[in-house]
Design brief:
The protein contains 17 helices and no strands. The protein is mostly helical. It is globular, with a radius of gyration of 20 Å.
Length: about 400
């Protein structure tokens, strides 16, 4: 790992610290402030809706200012929106909290491109390893995020206001790290305008499956993860228990980054993604077996590992669907599908867990898991039948 890739890995860890804290507290703060209980996860939803709305803007800033300038703009937004979230919590303004997390979505859309920037920084013939290593940086978020939320929860008189302020410090630290990264020379504007139209890129079976599996895998993970703190509170478990579960969930999400790249390189992305689907099914089965702490813990850990296999695999799979001159538009489209799915899952998460309960939420998650499995089988069949024709 070179210096630039190492620093980007740390930035990824700080980004996940932000996301873990948001996940741990936004639903609970929303539950305390929302006019109606089913609105509890609207601040979580606003974060991903903001990401979806920002994908086009981020693609343009990436083209105009390059990776570094766009990433720095995202971190400035992260800093300001964290402070606005703190003010919303202190003033008990639910709609201001939703607006602040919506604005923070711009940072979310920017930082979700770290995994693609890693491939450019690595300068190697093993892109799956570069993606995998940067994804492993999320372990920092697994350790720091839950502890930061728990330790800063009551720093101020208003619960969790201190946690939001701490995220402004996380953004400042990430800005410092980013300032030392030397990104490759951006693709020229003339080159950016070349290549195929986005509609043609998106018609490819590989792109379709990469986008669908990445979005649905992320959606299932978010559906269950966002609901977990609320579900655990409803089951009488302490916030410290929820923080522990989220910590092991995020460890499951990013610890496999140390070897997922090797697995993809050896077996290919589709088999690794199929294992991710199987792990999602195992997670749901355990979650349906009971609501003790250990069941939440194991289910969410497996959910995290399954997400890693699906998301790293889909990212690697997508690389064969576009060329360098098509990078920004293709990656923007991939991120849009992810954020659009996350918006639906975030809203559904709050509605289902507060009105129908944890059990129905898990049964509902079987639908996207089944669709992901069907997409993988469809692509595997197409690739298998295409080989004799090209031989």
């Amino acid at each position: 790992m070179n210096k630039n890739l190492g620093l980007l890995t740390l930035c990824q860890g700080l980004f996940l610290t932000n996301n873990v804290v948001f996940t741990a507290i936004n639903g609970l703060v929303g539950l305390a402030l929302a006019p109606l209980g089913w609105m509890a996860t609207l601040p979580v939803m606003a974060y991903v809706v903001g990401g979806a709305l920002s994908t086009g803007v981020v693609a343009k800033t990436q083209q105009r200012f390059g990776r570094k300038g766009s990433f720095q703009a995202g971190l400035i937004v992260a800093l300001l929106s964290a402070l606005l979230c703190a003010y919303a919590a202190i003033s008990r303004n639910f709609w201001l909290l939703c607006f602040a997390t919506l604005v923070a979505g711009y940072y979310n859309a920017n930082a979700n491109l770290y995994r693609f920037a890693a491939i450019e920084l690595a300068g190697s013939t093993a892109p799956e390893k570069a993606v995998s290593w940067v994804m492993a940086g999320g372990l920092l978020g697994a350790v720091v995020g839950p502890n930061l939320a728990a330790r800063t929860r009551d720093v101020l008189a208003v619960p969790f206001a201190g946690a939001y302020i701490s995220l402004a410090g996380v953004a400042l630290l990430s800005l410092l790290m980013l300032s030392f990264i030397e990104f490759p020379t951006p693709v020229t504007r003339q080159a950016q305008q070349g290549g195929r139209p986005l509609a043609q890129i998106m018609k490819q079976p590989i792109f379709i499956v990469a986008a669908a599996s990445g979005a649905l895998g992320y959606g299932v993970m978010n559906l269950l993860m966002a609901a977990t703190p609320i579900a655990m509170q409803q089951c009488g478990l302490e916030f410290s228990d929820a923080a522990l579960v989220l910590q092991w969930h995020v460890i499951g999400m990013f610890a496999p980054g140390f070897f997922t790249g090797n697995l993809i390189r050896r077996f290919g992305p589709l088999p690794v993604m199929a294992v991710g689907v199987a792990l999602n099914l195992a997670c749901i089965a355990i979650a349906l077996s009971g609501v003790d702490l250990n069941q939440f813990l194991l289910a969410l850990f497996l959910l995290g590992v399954g997400w890693n296999f699906l998301f790293t695999g889909s990212t690697t799979l997508s690389l064969s669907a576009y060329g360098p001159e098509e990078r920004d538009r293709a990656q923007g489209a991939l991120n849009f599908f992810v954020f659009a799915t996350l918006a639906v899952s975030s809203f559904s998460s709050g509605v289902l867990v507060t009105t129908r309960g944890w059990t129905l939420l898990n049964y509902g998650s079987l639908v996207p898991v089944t669709l992901t499995a069907a997409a993988l089988v469809w692509l595997a069949i197409r690739l298998k039948t295409a080989r004799p024709a090209t031989a």
